[in-house]
C-alpha cells in the first residue's frame, strides 16, 4: 500500500522546517519582481502543480479514493471564473460580472457544488468502478462543453477580459498554494483527517468502529474539488484564455498523478517535492527528449508505482531521515 | 420525426456495430472478471490493433480481415509481456498500483502513437469485393455485415475456448477462486498471463474491425475504453452472452441517440448510459454480479 495512512504529518513539526517553509514562500513571492516573465510563468506552472497535487492527494492519498476525473473540476473552476469575469462573451447577462478575486472563489465553489451533487452518486462506486466512473464523468463534462460552443468558445476557445495582471495573479497563486497546503495539513491532522485515513486503511473496519465512510469520502471529495476548481480559476485568470480541449484535458490529470506519484502519495511534502521535481523534469525533458517527454513521464509513473510506491519523498525520508513516520506506524490493514 | 426506413436502418447499423463493441468489451470483461483489474490501457490496445490493420492495408494492401489476425497475435504477445513485466508485480497489492500503472501505460501508448503514427485520422477499407444484403427497406452494408459476423465468431470462439479447453477450464477455475485453483495444481500466474494476452488480443481484433467503419487516431483510446467498459457494465462482468447483448444495446442506443440529438454527442450518450447503469445497477442489466459470484 502507498504512503502511510496511519501516520499523521510532521510538516510543521520542528522549527527548522517552518523556517525553511517561510523562507521558501518569501522567495516565491519575489519571483515576478526579480526574474523574467518566462521564469515567472514556469514557477507559476509549478504552483499549479502543487495545488493540483495537494488537492488530489487529499482525496486519493489520504482518503484512498482514486479519482481519475480531477481535470474536470480544474476545468469547471477555470470556466466559471471566465464566465464571471467576462459574461457577455458566453451570452450570459452582464449582471453576473464579478471582481476577479470573487470570481476565483466562485470557480472553487461551483466545483465544490458539482462534487457535492455528484458525490453521493459516484460513491456508490468503489475501487476500480469509482476510478473509471470519475474518468467517464470528466469525459462527459468535457464533451458537453465542447458541444456547447456558445458557453465554452468551442475548440477555438474563450478569451477572458479584466485580469489583474500576471504579477498580481502570481501572488494570488502563492497565497492560494500556502492556503491549500496549510489547510490540508490542518485537515489531515484533525478528526476529519483521521476519519479519512481510517476509511483508506480499511473501510469495513472503519465503519464497524462508527466511522461513516460516505461522510468522510464526501468531505475529501468536496474539499479536494474546491481546491481543484480554485486552481483552475487561478490558472484561467493568469493565462486569460480557456478552451475545453486544453483546459479540461486529461493532461491535467496526468500531471497531477505524476506530481503526486513522484513525490509520494499520502504524505504532506510529497506533492511539493513532486511538483518541484516535475517542473525541472518537464522543462528538462522537453529540451532533451522533445516530443518524447510525455512518453517518459508515463514511464516514470509506471516505474515509480512499481519500484518506489512511496515516491521520492518516501525514499529520501527512509534513507536520510530515518523513517520517523514509520516508527509510529501500526501494521496496516489491506485496503478493501 | 425521421422516416421509419431511416430509423430501421440506423437500428440495424447500431446492431451491427454493437458486435464489435462486444468483442472489445469481452476482452476487458475477461481481465476484470478473472484478475480483478480494469485494464485502463484497453482502449489504447484497441487503437494499436487498429493501426496494425491500417498500416498493413496502407503499405501492402492487405485486407483488415487478415490484418486482424496479425493484430490478434501481436497484441496477444503484448498482453502477455505486459502481465509478465509490469502487472505481475502489482496485482494483488491493493487497487492503487494497478490503476496508476495502467493509466501510465495508456499515456505511454498514446504519446508514442502520436509520435510514430501522427495525429491524422486514418481508416481502412474491407478491400475485398462483396455486396450488401437488402432486407426490405434496410440495407445491410457489406463491411458492416462482415465485421459483425467476424465479431460474433470471435465471441463464440472465446466462449468455446473457455468452456471446452483445459486452459479455458483453468481460467474459469482461477476466476472462481484463485487459491483453490492453485491448490488443485493450476499455475495461476500462467493463467493471468494468458488471460491478459487474450484480453488484449480481443481489443486488437476489435480495433482492426473498427478501422473499417470509423477513422482512427492515436487519441481514440480513452473513448473506446469507456465504451468497452460501458458494455461490460451493461452485460455484467464475466458473462459472455451478457457482453454480446450489452454491445448490441450500446451500438443501438448510440446510433439512435445520434439520430435524434445530433452527431456531436455520440460519445456523451454512451458515457452517460455507462454512468447511469454503473450507478443504478452495478451488477449489470443481465449479470449476476460476475466476480462476486463465488
Structural class of chain B: mainly alpha
Mean pLDDT of chain A, to the nearest integer, reads: 84
User: Helix count of chain A, per DSSP?
Assistant: 17
- What is the helix tally of chain B? 11
> What order do the SSEs of chain A take from the amino end to the carboxyl end, as H and E?
HHHHHHHEHHHHEHHHHHH
Rg of chain B, alpha carbons: 19 Å
C-alpha geometry of chain B: globular
Per CATH, which architecture of chain B? Orthogonal Bundle
Q: State the total count of DSSP E strands of chain A.
A: 2
Work out the radius of gyration of chain A: 19 Å
- Classify the fold: give the CATH topology of chain B: ABC transporter involved in vitamin B12 uptake, BtuC
Structural class based on helices, strands and sheet pairing of chain A:
mainly alpha
Distance between the termini of chain B: 48 Å
End-to-end distance of chain A: 11 Å
Mass-distribution shape of chain A: globular
Strand order of the largest sheet of chain A: 1-2
Along the chain, the helix and strand elements of chain B come as: HHHHEEHHHHHHH
InterPro entries (chain B): ABC_transp_permease, BCAA_transport_permease
Transmembrane segments (chain B): 6-32, 44-62, 68-87, 99-117, 145-162, 191-216, 228-252, 259-280
GO molecular function (chain B): transmembrane transporter activity
GO biological process, one term (chain B): amino acid transport
Topology:
The complex is a heterodimer of chains A (336) and B (294).
Chain A lengths: L14 H15 L1 H4 L2 H26 L7 H16 L14 H23 L4 H21 L1 H4 L5 E2 L6 H23 L2 H11 L1 H6 L4 H27 L1 E2 L1 H4 L2 H14 L6 H19 L4 H15 L3 H10 L3 H4 L9
Antiparallel strand pairs in A: 1-2
Helix pairs in contact in A: 3-8, 3-11, 3-13, 3-14, 4-5, 4-6, 4-11, 4-13, 5-11, 8-11, 9-11, 13-14, 13-15, 13-16
Chain B lengths: L3 H32 L6 H19 L3 H22 L10 H22 L15 E3 L2 E3 L1 H23 L1 H11 L1 H6 L4 H23 L10 H15 L4 H22 L4 H15 L14
Antiparallel strand pairs in B: 1-2
Helix pairs in contact in B: 1-5, 1-8, 1-9, 1-10, 2-3, 2-4, 2-8, 2-9, 3-8, 5-6, 6-8, 9-10, 9-11, 10-11
Amino acid at each position: 500500500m502507498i504512503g502511510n495512512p496511519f501516520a499523521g504529518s510532521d510538516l510543521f513539526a520542528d522549527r527548522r522546517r517552518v523556517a525553511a517553509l517561510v523562507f521558501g514562500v518569501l522567495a516565491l513571492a519575489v519571483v515576478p519582481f526579480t526574474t523574467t516573465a518566462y521564469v515567472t510563468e514556469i514557477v507559476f506552472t509549478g504552483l499549479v502543480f502543487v495545488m493540483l497535487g495537494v488537492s488530489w492527494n487529499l482525496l486519493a492519498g489520504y482518503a484512498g479514493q482514486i479519482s481519475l476525473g480531477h481535470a474536470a473540476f480544474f476545468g469547471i473552476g477555470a470556466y466559471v471564473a471566465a464566465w464571471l469575469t467576462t459574461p457577455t462573451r458566453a451570452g450570459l447577462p452582464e449582471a453576473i460580472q464579478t471582481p476577479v478575486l470573487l470570481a476565483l472563489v466562485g470557480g472553487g465553489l461551483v466545483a465544490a457544488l458539482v462534487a457535492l451533487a455528484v458525490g453521493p452518486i459516484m460513491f456508490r462506486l468503489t475501487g476500480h468502478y469509482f476510478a473509471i466512473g470519475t474518468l467517464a464523468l470528466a469525459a462527459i463534462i468535457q464533451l458537453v462543453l465542447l458541444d456547447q460552443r456558445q458557453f465554452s468558445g468551442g475548440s477555438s476557445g474563450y478569451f477572458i477580459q479584466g485580469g489583474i495582471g500576471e504579477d498580481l495573479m502570481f501572488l494570488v497563486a502563492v497565497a492560494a498554494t500556502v492556503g491549500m497546503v496549510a489547510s490540508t495539513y490542518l485537515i489531515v491532522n484533525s478528526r476529519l483527517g483521521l476519519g479519512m485515513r481510517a476509511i483508506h486503511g480499511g473501510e469495513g473496519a472503519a465503519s464497524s468502529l462508527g466511522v461513516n465512510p460516505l461522510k468522510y469520502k464526501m468531505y475529501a471529495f468536496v474539499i479536494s474539488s474546491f481546491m481543484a476548481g480554485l486552481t483552475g480559476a487561478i490558472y484561467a485568470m493568469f493565462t486569460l484564455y480557456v478552451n475545453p480541449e486544453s483546459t479540461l484535458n486529461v493532461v491535467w490529470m496526468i500531471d497531477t498523478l505524476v506530481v503526486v506519484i513522484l513525490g509520494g502519495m499520502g504524505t504532506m511534502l510529497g506533492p511539493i517535492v513532486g511538483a518541484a521535481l516535475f517542473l525541472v523534469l518537464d522543462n528538462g525533458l522537453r529540451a532533451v527528449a522533445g516530443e518524447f517527454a510525455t512518453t517518459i513521464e508515463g514511464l516514470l509513473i509506471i516505474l515509480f508505482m512499481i519500484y518506489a510506491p512511496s515516491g521520492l519523498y518516501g525514499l529520501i525520508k527512509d534513507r536520510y531521515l530515518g523513517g520517523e513516520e514509520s516508527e509510529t506506524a501500526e501494521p496496516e490493514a489491506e485496503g478493501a | 420525426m425521421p422516416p421509419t426506413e431511416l430509423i430501421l436502418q440506423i437500428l440495424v447499423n447500431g446492431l451491427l456495430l454493437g458486435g464489435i463493441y462486444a468483442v472489445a468489451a469481452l476482452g476487458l470483461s475477461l481481465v476484470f472478471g478473472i484478475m480483478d483489474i480494469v485494464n485502463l490501457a484497453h482502449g489504447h490496445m484497441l487503437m494499436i490493433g487498429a493501426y496494425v490493420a491500417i498500416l498493413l492495408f496502407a503499405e501492402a494492401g492487405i485486407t483488415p480481415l487478415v490484418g486482424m489476425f496479425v493484430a490478434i497475435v501481436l497484441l496477444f504477445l503484448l498482453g502477455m509481456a505486459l502481465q509478465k513485466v509490469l502487472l505481475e508485480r502489482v496485482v494483488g497489492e491493493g487497487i492503487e498500483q494497478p490503476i496508476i500503472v495502467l493509466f501510465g501505460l495508456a499515456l505511454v501508448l498514446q504519446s508514442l502513437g502520436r509520435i510514430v503514427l501522427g495525429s491524422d485520422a486514418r481508416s481502412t477499407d474491407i478491400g475485398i469485393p462483396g455486396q450488401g444484403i437488402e432486407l426490405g427497406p434496410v440495407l445491410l452494408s457489406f463491411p458492416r455485415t462482415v465485421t459483425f459476423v467476424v465479431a460474433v465468431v470471435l465471441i463464440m470462439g472465446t466462449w468455446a475456448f473457455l468452456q471446452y479447453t483445459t486452459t479455458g477450464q483453468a481460467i474459469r477455475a482461477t476466476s472462481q477462486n484463485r487459491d483453490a485453483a492453485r491448490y488443485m495444481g493450476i499455475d495461476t500466474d500462467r493463467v493471468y498471463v494468458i488471460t491478459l494476452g487474450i484480453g488484449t488480443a480481443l481489443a486488437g481484433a476489435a480495433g482492426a474491425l473498427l478501422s473499417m467503419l470509423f477513422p482512427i487516431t492515436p487519441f481514440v483510446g480513452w473513448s473506446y475504453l469507456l465504451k468497452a467498459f460501458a458494455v461490460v457494465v451493461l452485460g455484467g462482468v464475466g458473462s459472455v452472452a451478457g457482453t454480446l447483448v450489452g454491445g448490441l444495446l450500446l451500438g443501438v442506443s448510440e446510433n439512435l441517440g445520434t439520430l435524434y440529438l445530433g452527431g456531436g454527442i455520440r460519445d456523451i450518450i454512451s458515457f452517460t448510459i455507462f454512468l447511469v447503469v454503473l450507478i443504478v445497477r452495478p451488477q449489470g442489466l443481465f449479470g449476476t454480479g460476475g466476480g462476486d459470484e463465488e
